[in-house]
Write a structure and sequence with these properties.
There is one protein chain. By secondary structure, the protein is mainly β. The protein has no helices and 15 strands. The protein has one domain: Methylamine Dehydrogenase, Chain H, CATH 2.130.10.10. Helices cover about 0% and strands about 60% of the residues. The model has no long low-confidence stretch (mean pLDDT about 85).
Length: about 170
């Protein structure tokens, strides 16, 4: 009988466009990836590593480094949060643009739903923002209206809170 030791839980280090997975006990490189664009965020979703590079979210098998898929979300995500088996990425600066500003991705690298927001003016300096969600195939799911968009404060799921980077 052959016994296989448990897989090493890699330490993943991001260095600009490169990802290196290291055995934390020995420093041995387990796998590496050279991205076309600078990697701006890393997320662990189950046994997957999802990373943001440009407008794309890449889905990688954490143990082997094998590519599972790449999704062009249509915007540059600046925040994200893991929600169970999914990753939600957002660009709150696109609020009121009418373009996608939130996307829910599965750990397999597929879009589950999208969110867009647009401003509806009711007069000079007055109006509201409408946030709409659609399924992956574009079917309407829901909408909410709220005051004109201001500074993004972040979002919460379970015991996780994500605050956006503040840029000057």
């Amino acid at each position: 009988m052959t016994y296989r030791s448990a897989p090493v839980q890699p330490l993943v280090v991001c260095m600009g466009r490169g990802l290196l997975a290291l055995d934390p006990a020995t420093g041995q490189i387990l796998w590496s990836i050279d991205s076309k664009f600078t990697i701006s965020r890393l997320f662990r979703v189950g046994e997957r590593l999802l990373f943001i590079a440009g407008d794309n979210v890449h889905c990688i098998d954490l143990e082997s480094g094998a590519a599972i898929g790449v999704v062009d979300v249509g915007f540059f995500p600046d925040e994200g949060i893991v929600c169970g088996t999914d990753l939600i990425v957002v660009n709150a600066r696109l609020a009121a643009s009418g373009r996608p500003s939130a996307v829910c991705l599965t750990s397999e690298g597929a879009i589950r739903w999208k969110g867009t927001s647009e401003m509806e003016s009711t007069g000079l300096l007055s109006g509201h923002t409408v946030f709409r969600t659609t399924s992956a195939d574009g079917a309407f799911v829901s909408e909410a209206r709220y005051g004109l968009a201001g500074e993004a404060a972040g979002f919460l799921f379970g015991d996780q809170v994500v605050q956006p980077d503040k840029r000057g």
